Amino acid sequence: MKISRNDSCPCGNNKKYKKCCLQKNIKTGYVYVGQDYAEDKENVEVVIKYCVPSAVVFRNFDIDLPNNLHMRQSSGQLNISIDRTISKKLYDDLTLMIKDKPENVKVEDAQKVAEATEFIIGYIRQTLPVINQEIIDRKYSEGHIFVRTFSIVDIFDVGILDKKLGWGGFAMLPWPSPLPAFTINKGLSDFGDAIFVRDMIEAMTAFFYFNYDDCIRKIITSLENCFIMHYKLPSKKQRSFLYKLKFLRPFLRSPKILNLIDEYIIEDNYDYKEKNLKILRQNIKYVYDMRNQIVHNELRCDPGLFGIYKKAIGTLYYIYQGFFIEEGKRAYIFSFQRQFLVIDENYSGLLVIKDIKDTGKEKIISTKEELDNAIFNNLEITKNEVVEFKNKSRKIPNQNYSKVPREILENLGQPIMLHPKATKKDTPRQT
Question: What is the pLDDT of residues 353-406, one digit of tens each?
């Protein structure tokens, strides 16, 4: 939370911030968000509650998950609760308006509650990948068409309850907050709209809805559409007299995407140095391998590794800054990347982290090259992250291709067409 020098000090000793804890922070040389909550010695046992919409009724959806996470279903919604220990000061800030009538609420108190709510949203966001994974599993195991995952902006009725005080210590929190306004220059979509750009937008949407399998698949689909469908970029072998004859192109084999990655993500096509482009090439190849494992039904993305998926989207964005992309499309893509970063910044919430230490490794960036190096170093998907992805992602068991019992097929209420040569005892093979 941002505190001005003349504000009352958050430690509560009735002094101005500049004459109290600001001096302590100047001496230590380090200040961080949530510091007053992290340094609070008193704790409170609370229940964080929130709801998400549900268009279907699941079977036996009374679920207790690890980390004190509980899910129950009522009409049209899923009710989720988290048992957690939080700072007493954080709880006090969240419940500032618990007894006030709307007309008596102070602007300062409302602002403090909104800022404190960011930390509760941070706790809630940690649970969403697990809950969405459970919803995805139920979608396919129970056979629901109208089931979809949800994002942080879909949750509602967010509240916090002190376990000791019971409902007398319950407070509703101001969420969801409105999305910031995003404006695109008039007419820009006329120059930037393309199928590969739409695929990229869908990948971003899947990321915020915690559907990481679709996110990875859409990233590679977008790149394939960009390289092959939209631009039809030929490989070195195809830059020949035969390829220049358009009527022969349908009969020539399209280049593999891995070849195009090596051929087009080079210094001639970018305003970046080779060492940074090498990171882009390696990243997208890692993502391509992830996509193949997903579509070949070998594994499902681990929801806890969202940092890798965020890097994958960032990699695609920087690939699309190549000069072989038309200027209008680059500008259109930039507008969505900016929107992606703003949403991620504003809707990820905050966490109270204790024992933060000043490492003293901060570096002032003064040139474009230093800025590029910092960006691409943070963007790099490391080998350790690739190993972690393979180890933590859920392995798909071998498919059961044995014959489906006839009574199961008969219970569908619809006669199943058998092969003409099949006997009455035979059933179709599961494919």
Answer: 665 555 555 667 778 888 888 899 999 999 999 999 989 888 776 656 566 676
pLDDT tens digits along 82-111: 999 999 999 999 998 876 666 677 888 888
Domain assignment present for residue 182? The answer is no
Per the structure, the count of domains in the chain is 4
Q: Are residues 411 and 330 in the same domain?
A: no
The parent domain of residue 208 ranges over: 189-356+366-395
pLDDT at site 75: 80
> 377 and 260, same structural domain?
yes
The verdict on 238 and 139 lying in the same domain is no
- Inside any domain, residue 183: no
- Do residues 146 and 95 both lie within one domain? yes
Q: Is 37 among the domain residues?
A: no
Secondary structure, 3-state, the chain: CCCCCCCECCCCCCCEHHHCHHHHHHHHCCCCCCHHHHCCCCEEEEEEEEEEECCCCCCCCCEEECCCEEEEEECCEEEEEEEEEEEHHHHHHHCCCCCCCHHHCCHHHHHHHHHHHHHHHHHHHHHHHHHHHHHHHHHHHHCCCCCCCCCHHHCEEEEEEECCCHHHHEEECCCCCCCCCCCCCCCHHHHHCCHHHHHHHHHHHHHHCCCHHHHHHHHHHHHHHHHHHHCCCCCCCCCCHHHHCHHHHHHCCCCCHHHHHHHHCCHHHCCCCHHHHHHHHHHHHHHHHHHHHHHCCCEECCCCCHHHHHHHHHHHHHHCCCCCCCHHHHHHHHHHHHHHHHHHHHCCCCCCCCCCCCCCCCCCCCCHHHHHHHHHHHHCCCHHHHHHHHHHCEECCCCCCCCCCHHHHHCCCCCCCCCCCCCCCCCCCCC
